[in-house]
Structures are given as C-alpha cells and as structure tokens.
C-alpha cells in the first residue's frame, strides 16, 4: 500500500481495491478457462488427460463445456463470477463492492453445489425433475479440478467481500481461513454423515422410502431383549451397549488402580508404567485380539497346555463378547490410565494435608477428600473408554465370531453377502446416537466440573500415602494384569517366529520372509514380500496426511483461541464432536457420500488422506488450543501493533511458540494413520491398500503367523518413529529451556 | 504496509480525536459515547479506577478493538475501520508482551521488518532504539535474561523505533517494584519530551499521572469525569469523585451564600470563606473538598473563624501525625506535619482551614 499524495481530496477518496481481489478473479478464470472441469477417470496428476485437452468432452474446461458440449448449466456459476469481476471494476465504494462480493460469492457457491447435485451421470438426478424441466440429453461426471477450483474462487470472493466490509477487522487472511475450514468440515464431516442419514431412507434406486428404515429400526436383531427373558440372544444394540459399559467399567477401574500405583505407592517400576501409555497408540487395534487368539483360542498355547496337562476340553469361550471384552479392557486401560494419572496427580497435596491436620486418618482422607476430587476424572475416563469401545472395530472383527457388535454388523451390511445399505445406515445411526450421547454427557456435564486440575503453581507438600487396604487391593489388581499385558505383548512379538501356534512350535523366520522378503534381481531390489505393497502405501499416505492434519489442526486451534468470529463455539463443538463419530460410521458415510457425483473419490488415495485428516485433526486442535491458551494473547496483539498482519503473526509468533504442540500433532496423525482400521477398511482399494486392512485380510484367511509378524513389524516401526520424534522435541525443549531459563511463554519472561 | 514517510510535521500529525465513540461487549456497554481531543506532542494520561474503560479506550485507539459506534481520528485521518497493523501508532503492553523466542534486538527489529524495512537497516535502527533506552549491547539477550525494568525498556524501544505518531502505554509500570517505577516513569517522560511524540498513558495511580502528564483525563464508568492539567485536577476538582481520586480529600457539605466575580462566599459551621467558584456553582447547598493537610488543628478554644471538634484517634508516622477528628460537619481526616507535641485522643480542638487545599464542588 503506497500512500496517496498529500492532497486533501486523495485522503478521503476511496482507496484502490486491494490486489487480492484480482487474485481471486484470476483463480476463477483458471477454473473456468484452463482446468478440466470434471473428474478425470485416470487421475488428474497422471496428466494423460492433456492428450485430449481441451476439446474432449471428458477433459474440457468449464467454458468449453458450455460452448461445445452443451452443458449449459455451468453458465450459472460462470455468470456469478463475471458479475464479481464487473463489481470489482465498477463499484468504487469498498462497502458496496464488499456487499456485492459477499452475495455473488455465496450465490456462485450455491449454484455450483446445486448444479452438482441436480445433474448426475445420466442427466437429472431425480426423475421428477425430468417432468419439470424435460429430459436432459446428457449428464455430467463428478466434479474435477476446474469445479473444485471454482468453488475455492467463490469462497475467496465471499471472504474478500466480508473483508471489504470490515468484518473481523477486515482481516482477509483470517476470514478466508475460517471460510475454507468451514467448507472442508462441511464437505468431509457433515455432508457424509447427512448423506448416510438420508441413506437410511433410500431405496436401492435412490428414491425416498421409509420402508427400509422402519423395517431395520424395528428389527428384533437390533433391539431384542431376548437375553433378559432368557430364551435367545439380545439385539446387537443392547449387546454393544452392554459391552461398552463393561469395558468402560473395567478399563476405568484398572486405570485408576494403575494411576494410584504410579503416584501413591513406592512401586519400583514407575517409569515402565509410563511406557504402558504409549502402547495403545502404536498398537493396531486388533492386534491384542489376535494375541488373545494365539493364547486362548482353540489351538492357543494356554488352551492346548491346559488340555494336555489337565485334560480341559478346548472351548470356544474366547470367541464372543467375553473375548472382545478382555481385549478391549487390555486395549483401553492405558487410555484410562493416561487420563487418570493427570487427575490423581492433580489433586492438590495441600488438600490431603489439610484433611490430615483435621484429624482424619488415611482412609478417611482417601475416601472423603481424594476420591471425590477425582470423580470428574473418573467420569471422563469412563466416557472415553465407553466411546472407544463402541467405536472399536478390530477386536470384535477378530474375536466377535457370530456375536457381532454394531461396528462389525455395519461392516457386514456393507460388504457382506447380503448388502443392505439401509440396514448399514440404521445401525450407523444407532451407533452414532450412543457415542454422541456419551460425548454430550462428557461435554455438558463434565465441562464445568474440572476442579482437580493442576494449578501450574508449584504446590508444595506430599500426597498422602494410600490406606493399607487400598494399597493391597491396588497391588493385587495391577500386578497380575501387568503380567498379563506383558504376556500378551510378548505373544505379539514372539508370535511371528513360531510356525503354527498350538500345533508346531518350531521357530522360523518364514513369516517375516513371506511378509518382508527382498531379493536382488536384474533391476535392483525386488520387494518380493507380500506386505511391501501395503506397507509403502501406508507410509506414503501417512506421510501426506500427517503434515496436513497438523497444519489444519494448528490453524483451527489458532482461529478458535485467537479470533472472535460468529459461530466460533459451534465450530469448535462440531470439530470435537467429529471425534466421537466412530470410524465405522465415517467409513460407511464416506462410501455413501463419495462414490457418485458431485464428489467422487472412492478408490483414490485422496479419500484416505481426507479421512485421516478429519478424523485425527480434533486431537491436534485440542493440543493446539491447550498450548495456545498458555501463550498470552498480548503477544499476538503486540505483533499486530508492530505492523505485522495476521498471517505474519501466525508464522513468526504463534507457530514458533507452538512447536511442541505441532510435533505432537504430527506424530499422532502419522501413527494414527498407520494403526487405524475401522474407517480405512471401507475405503481401501486394490490400488491403495493399507497395512491394517491387509492384516485383517490375512487374519480372515487364517494366516495368523504372517499377520502377527506384520503387526509387530508395524509396532516396531512406529515405536522407532515416536522415539525419534521424542528425541528431537526433547532436545529442542532443552535448548529452549537453557536459553530461556524459566520463561513460561506468557510474555513477561521471568523477572530475574 | 510501508512505514509512514518522514513528511513535514503538519499540525495535525500526532493529534487524536474520539467522536462519540461507543463500545459494547454484547449487552454490556463499556464506553457509552466518549468524545475527546488530544493535542499533538503532549503526554495525556487516562486515569481511573479499575474497570472504568481505560484499556478499552486505548485498545480502540490501537485498533485491537473496534468501536461499536463513532469515529476515531489519528493525525486528522479517520482510522476507525483500519486494522491495528495499518495504524500509525504503537503500544507498550502492561505485560510487555515481548516475544520470548526472540532476542531483545529481534524483538525491537520485529516491527521494522514487518514494515518492509531491509534486514540490515532494521538491525541498525533497532540497535539505535536499544541505545535510546540505555540498553546498548544487550541486544543478544532473550527477554528472560533481562530484569523486569530492562524488559520494560525493550518494550518501549520496540514501540518507539517505529516512530509512531502516537505511542500508547497501558499501565507500563505496574509490573515494576515501587522504586524502579519512579525512575522509569521519569525516563519515559524524558524520552517523550525529547522526541516530541504524542503519548497516551493509561494508569490507575494518581501519583504517576500527576508526575508525568501534560493533561489528565479521569474516567469513570466509561465516561470522562474531568479533563485538565494535573494542577487543575488537583486544585479544583469538579466532583467529589475527582477530589477523592486525586489524592485523599474530606468531602463535606457546605452552604454557598453568594457568588461574585469568580469567587464564592461559603459557610461551613461557623466558618465563612471566599473561595474560587468553579463553573456550575449555584448559591445554596454545595460540597467542600478539604485536603487532609489543609486542616489546621489547635488545642485552644475556638477563635473567630473556626469550629469545634474532638480528636478521636492519633497516629504518629514519623514525619507527620494523622488525626481523626469528630466535628459537627462530620468526621475529618487531618494530617499535621508538626510532630513535637501531638494532640491526644479525646482532646477538644479548634478546626480551621488553611487557604490552600480547599476547593468548592458544585451540587
Ligand atoms: N472483551 C471484553 N468482553 C467483555 N467485557 C469486557 C471486555 N473487555 C473489557 N470488558 C469490560 O469493560 C469494562 C472496562 O474494561 P477495561 O477497559 O479493561 O478497564 P480498565 O479501566 O481497568 O482498563 C470492564 O467492566 C470490563 O469487564
Ligand atoms: Mg486495564
């Protein structure tokens, strides 16, 4: 911005339109004139489409689609763009221009969306439109690079219009960021879920019907209470609920015991306990189930041992809710532990000391002071384990047998022998209902009751020791369970080296060779192992998804904490809520939403990446929000008053201070992309197969050896990656602490 | 955003004006219709009790908050819609807000770099800025490696190197200990007078305001209670609130008997005086603000122009004695610098008023 010459009139005249306006218009032109409008069958980045470009009806840009191929409906958004260009040059008053751009941007987006939904492959998407407007001679494929770019251009036009009108202090960067994030969340969270809800009311041909919904909703296989009366099995909804309640109870109890063990006793291996917390993050969810099969399955080590020693008949007890329950408690206890250790440590020692000086003995102190202060934490751990159990897909798949839970039933309703999209949708709605209820309970009820938090001020004093009885109980519960966990993990690592569990216990490298075999051929290294394909795909997709997740997460966190925009609370709530959507539901809804125009992505790497970004982003956001809240807002404001715009402020002030949170988000996103299965299993394709989906395939074929070998290799890789990152971050923090002494990043520095 | 070129100082440069500025946070109106003018090159303090809207006013001037209604001008130019980074002001934050991950030199150079100045020049000017506040050679230190006073000066240097039309300071001394406070406030005033920029200074401490300001604006509940030079505010407060806020005062009812030629004759108990008449004073009931040291107590029987009282309590404080005196006009707080023969509680005294430190308040 250069200053106008010092004439009295120039100062009051309208400033020239900012250059960003032209950039938005250019992007619009690019979308309509240059990029192929529709989705390219072979993939955009194959660039094979350049051959028929631009006249070919499959690859033509928007303008040519209108002129040459009779897709005149594209004229509507094009006109909105043209009108925006006119407003840019004709309207001098920023306010009037801003108003025009807001309207035109919104209009363009609406037109783009509407034409996409109304006109599919074969013409009108709904029959009644034929009657209304007459039959269309042709339809259109899904949106491609041109259409998506046009959408982005309209979003920018909308945002820049708001900026011209002075919304959010006229900060175009902030407004566009919010607009794009909102659009992405709408497309990748709300649209699929809505589509799935709608799917419950659709026939196979897409027409509206309530038959499927009512039939499934009322189905006794879902809601039957037969087990209470004692004749048959209960419905899958009740079974899932029951399982989740049991798992949450088990995991919370054990988590509390471990937390007490780690903080209130002289247990010698406390460091090792912390290790326990990393395990669930790096263990693919079904691996515990797999290990249980190798231990307690019909041909499991222990089963066989008992049978040969005592003649105990090998049973199938493991395959059912009991087995799933054990696997889930094993898997989620560390999660509960992680939550509860913070809570147990957070109970201020001075409270306990105060209680003791008031003549309370240790038992009374524990029961009347410590435990009540931990209550919100316990409820939190319970709800989180509940949600995790509901969403768990891997363990029920491996161990559930015929006693399915909701998540596996959904899977079989989509891919099984009797596909029933309506049933899948109904089951998904029920599952979503359960988890969202738990999530709401956690947010609304616990949000305000967090009185056991660490104050940040050094709290002198010592935690009271546990009463003798409680201490014994804690040891009695945790030590066997610890041994059990160690056995299970030992099984996972040993499993890959044994020929056939239960039958032939000779040691072998065969499984590893089959999975990760390498040989040298004429063209160099040949990756002959069966696992390589999915392994590299997984790494590649995780590597793409992780930085995207972290970037989107940090940007969102910054916006939520630092910018005061309309609907901020709703935005944050919606994001966090998406965390409570079980992966299976996401998977089903992505399949339903993205396998036909206007957005078609199934079978691509993109859908996997997007799925990971939006499933794992909430954790990054939460970490970012926590970190950002500790950084004094005046640092941002100081930067603004020092002539830096908000983008520069974000880059130079916020991000450097957030580095630990960013690293954490990166690691989390990377690891989750590797270990998750529930959503992935719906989205993988022959071309893009992921490690977890491949392993589940191996399990289904009974190739336990290779499956467990592949799993343990994954765990080792991830452990290596995590410790690598931890070293990196740890070092950086040290250096910063060395230089900054005791700065708490609150802008004051330490008053030396 | 470019730095504003060093044009010739026109007479508007550095002036600030608020025109009917209103600021609401949701349903709560923090500033209801504030109008004020600040002359170029002056140091003006916004003074008032906590929560009266000083910070909000300053932040609106900085562009960190935007008025709900009204206009703000800086140097004659309407900046109401301009974001903070496009305004020619800079701010010293109460918490200093030094970037903890940058050295003090980097902190000072930050604004210059944001303004598009080349790294080398920014560095040189930042070094000059540090020298200006007496921190030459400390450029490589991180904020945490500086004492509180030094951090404060880095914050001032960081704001000053941008050569803003107006420098904003929000309670800049509140994180310093009492002794440092006195020194730093003198330094700030010195630099301001040397460089001649306009400064708006927020504080809740009336001593600080009296010491540094050309003009003081006392705020109460988002409105201006009184504006004037330190002397005007101290010697002729417009209300009991001002009288009490600008140093302690006994505010007692009195009667105005007649007004003529800028002075008024007032009566309190048996005592009659002619005092300067403030604007808006009418005959009848009024109030009298009496500074504690304007009360003369004598153990003798009441003379011509004094009224009787009785000592309730006395506290010896080294260089002065504080008394609570019960009189028929009410309870008075008095300070006597005569410490040799203090009066004893219960003693009957004659209460007289000295000529200075007494002011009439309308209403
Ligand atoms: N962002 C905000 N939201 C709501 N109320 C605010 C906000 N900022 C300030 N206020 C209110 O406005 C009033 C003035 O605040 P402030 O300007 O900070 O006072 P002070 O004179 O102490 O600096 C206070 O009552 C405060 O609670
Ligand atoms: Mg304040």
Give an account of the 3D structure.
The complex is a heterodimer of chains A (752) and B (363). Chain A is an all-alpha fold. Helix content of chain A is 68%, strand content 3%. In chain A, the strands form four sheets. Chain A has a two-stranded antiparallel ribbon. A two-stranded antiparallel ribbon of chain A has the order 3-4. Chain B has helices spanning 54-62, 104-114, 119-132, 148-160, 178-195, 206-212, 230-235, 240-245; strands spanning 16-25, 28-38, 43-47, 69-74, 77-78, 89-92, 166-170, 198-203, 215-220, 223-228, 250-260, 263-268, 271-276, 284-290, 295-298, 307-316, 321-327, 330-336, 348-353, 358-361. In chain B, strand 12 (263-268) and strand 13 (271-276) form a beta hairpin. The radius of gyration of chain B is 25 Å and the shape is elongated. Chain B contains eight helices and 20 strands. Chain B has a six-stranded mixed beta sheet, with helices on both faces. In chain B, strands 13-12-11-14-20 form a five-stranded antiparallel beta sheet. A five-stranded antiparallel beta sheet of chain B has the order 15-19-16-17-18, with no helix packed on it. Chain B is of the alpha+beta class and 363 residues long. The model of chain B is unreliable at 1-9 (pLDDT under 50). In chain B, 23% of the residues lie in helices and 36% in strands. The A-B interface holds A 1-3, 6, 11, 166, 169-171, 632, 634-635, 637-645, 648, 652-653, 656-657, 736, 739-743, 745-752 and B 1-5, 7, 62-64, 66, 77, 81, 83-87, 89-91, 93-101, 110-111, 114-115, 142-148, 151, 158-159, 162, 168, 175. Adenosine-5'-diphosphate binds at residues 25, 28, 30, 48, 50-56 of chain B. Residues 54-55 of chain B line the site of magnesium ion.
């Amino acid at each position: 911005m250069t200053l106008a010459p010092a004439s009295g009139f120039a100062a009051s005249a309208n400033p020239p339109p900012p250059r960003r306006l032209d950039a938005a218009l250019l992007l619009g032109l690019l979308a309509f004139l240059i990029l192929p409008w529709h989705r390219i069958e072979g993939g955009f980045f194959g660039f094979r489409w350049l051959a028929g470009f631009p006249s070919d009806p499959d690859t033509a840009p928007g303008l040519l689609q209108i002129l040459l191929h009779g897709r005149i409906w594209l004229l509507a958004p094009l006109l909105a763009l043209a009108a925006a260009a006119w407003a840019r040059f004709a309207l001098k008053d920023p306010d009037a221009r801003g108003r025009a751009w807001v309207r035109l941007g919104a209009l363009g987006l609406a037109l783009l969306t509407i034409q996409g939904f109304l006109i599919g492959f074969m013409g009108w998407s709904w029959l009644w439109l034929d009657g209304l407007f007459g039959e269309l001679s042709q339809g259109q494929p899904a949106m491609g690079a041109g259409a998506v770019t046009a959408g982005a251009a309209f979003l920018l036009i909308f945002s820049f219009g708001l900026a011209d009108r002075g919304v959010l202090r006229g900060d175009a960067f902030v407004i566009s960021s919010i607009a794009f994030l909102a659009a992405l969340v709408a497309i990748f969270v709300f649209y699929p879920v809505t589509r799935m809800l709608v799917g419950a009311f659709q026939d196979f041909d897409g027409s509206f019907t309530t038959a499927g919904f009512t039939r499934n909703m009322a189905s006794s296989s879902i809601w039957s209470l037969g087990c209470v009366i004692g004749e048959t099995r209960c419905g899958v909804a009740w079974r899932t609920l029951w399982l989740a309640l049991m798992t949450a109870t088990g995991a919370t109890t054990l988590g509390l015991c471990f937390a007490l063990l780690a903080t209130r006793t002289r247990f010698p291996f406390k460091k090792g306990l912390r290790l326990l917390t990393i395990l669930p993050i790096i263990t693919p969810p079904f691996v515990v189930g797999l290990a249980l099969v190798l231990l307690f399955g019909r041909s499991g080590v222990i089963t066989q041992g008992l049978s040969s020693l005592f003649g105990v008949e090998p049973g199938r007890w493991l395959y059912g809710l009991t087995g799933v329950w054990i696997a889930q408690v094993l898997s989620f206890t560390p999660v509960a532990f992680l939550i509860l250790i913070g809570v147990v440590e957070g109970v201020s020692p001075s409270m306990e000391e105060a209680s003791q000086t008031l003549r309370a003995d240790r038992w009374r102190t524990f029961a009347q002071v410590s435990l009540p202060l931990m209550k919100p934490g316990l409820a939190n751990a319970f709800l989180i384990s509940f949600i995790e159990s509901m969403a768990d897909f891997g363990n029920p798949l491996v161990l559930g047998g015929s006693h399915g839970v909701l998540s596996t039933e959904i899977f079989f309703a989509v891919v099984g022998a009797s596909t029933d999209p309506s049933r899948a949708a109904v089951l998904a709605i029920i599952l979503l209902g359960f988890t969202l209820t738990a999530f709401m309970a956690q947010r609304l009820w616990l949000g305000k009751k967090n009185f056991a938090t660490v104050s940040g001020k050094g709290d002198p004093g010592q935690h009271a020791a546990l009463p003798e009885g409680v201490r014994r109980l804690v040891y009695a519960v945790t030590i066997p369970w610890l041994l059990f966990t160690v056995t299970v993990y030992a099984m996972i690592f040993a499993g890959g080296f044994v020929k056939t569990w239960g039958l032939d216990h000779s040691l072998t490298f065969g499984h590893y060779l089959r999975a990760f075999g390498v040989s040298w051929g004429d063209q160099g290294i040949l990756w002959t192992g069966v696992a390589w394909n999915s392994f590299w795909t997984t790494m590649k997709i995780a590597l793409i998804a992780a930085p995207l997740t972290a970037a989107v997460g940090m940007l969102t966190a910054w916006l939520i904490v630092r910018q005061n925009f309309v609907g901020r609370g709703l935005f944050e709530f919606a994001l966090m809520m998406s965390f409570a959507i079980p992966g299976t539901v996401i998977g089903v809804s992505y399949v339903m939403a993205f396998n036909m125009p206007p957005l078609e992505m199934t079978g691509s790497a993109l859908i996997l990446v997007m799925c990971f970004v939006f499933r794992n982003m909430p954790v990054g956001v939460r970490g970012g929000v926590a970190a950002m809240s500790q950084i004094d807002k005046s640092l941002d404001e100081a930067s603004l008053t020092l002539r830096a715009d908000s983008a520069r402020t974000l880059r130079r002030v916020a991000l450097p201070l957030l580095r630990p949170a960013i690293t954490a988000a990166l690691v989390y996103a990377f690891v989750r992309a590797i270990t998750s299965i529930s959503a992935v299993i719906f989205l993988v394709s022959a071309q893009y197969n992921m490690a977890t989906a491949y392993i589940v395939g191996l399990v289904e074929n009974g190739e336990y050896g290779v499956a467990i070998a592949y799993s343990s290799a994954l765990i080792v890789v991830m452990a290596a990656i995590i410790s690598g990152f931890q070293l990196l971050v740890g070092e950086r923090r040290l250096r910063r602490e060395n230089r900054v002494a005791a700065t708490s990043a609150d802008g004051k520095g330490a008053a030396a | 955003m470019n730095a504003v070129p060093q044009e010739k100082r026109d007479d508007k440069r550095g002036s600030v004006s608020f025109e009917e500025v209103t600021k609401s946070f949701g349903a709560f109106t923090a500033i209801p219709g504030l109008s004020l003018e600040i002359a170029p090159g002056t140091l003006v303090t916004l003074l008032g009790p906590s929560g009266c809207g000083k910070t909000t006013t300053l932040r609106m001037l900085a562009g960190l908050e935007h008025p709900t209604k009204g206009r703000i001008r800086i140097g004659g130019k309407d900046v109401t819609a301009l974001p903070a980074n496009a305004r020619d002001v800079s701010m010293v934050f109460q918490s200093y807000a030094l970037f903890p991950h940058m050295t003090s030199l980097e902190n000072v150079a930050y604004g210059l770099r944001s303004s598009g100045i080349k790294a080398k020049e920014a560095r040189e000017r930042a070094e000059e800025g540090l020298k200006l506040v007496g921190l030459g050679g400390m450029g490589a230190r991180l904020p945490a490696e500086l004492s509180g006073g030094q951090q404060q000066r880095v914050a001032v240097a960081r704001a000053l190197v941008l050569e803003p039309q107006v420098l904003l300071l929000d309670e800049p001394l509140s994180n310093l200990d009492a002794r440092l406070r006195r020194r730093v406030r003198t330094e700030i005033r010195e630099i301001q007078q040397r460089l001649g920029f306009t400064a708006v200074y927020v504080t809740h401490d009336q001593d600080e305001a009296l010491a540094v300001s050309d003009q003081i604006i006392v705020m109460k509940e988002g409105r201006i209670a009184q504006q004037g030079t330190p002397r005007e505010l101290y010697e002729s407060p417009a209300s009991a609130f001002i009288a009490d806020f600008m140093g302690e005062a006994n505010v007692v009812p009195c009667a105005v008997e007649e007004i003529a030629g800028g002075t008024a004759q007032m009566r309190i108990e048996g005592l009659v005086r002619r005092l300067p008449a403030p604007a808006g004073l009418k005959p009848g009931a009024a109030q009298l603000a009496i500074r504690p040291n304007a009360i003369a107590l004598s153990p003798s029987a009441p003379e011509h122009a004094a009224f009787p009282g009785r000592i309730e309590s006395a506290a010896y404080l080294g260089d002065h004695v504080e008394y609570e005196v019960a009189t028929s006009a009410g309870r008075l707080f008095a300070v006597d610098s005569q410490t040799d023969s203090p009066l004893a509680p219960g003693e009957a005294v004659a209460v007289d008023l000295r000529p200075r430190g007494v002011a009439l308040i309308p209403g």
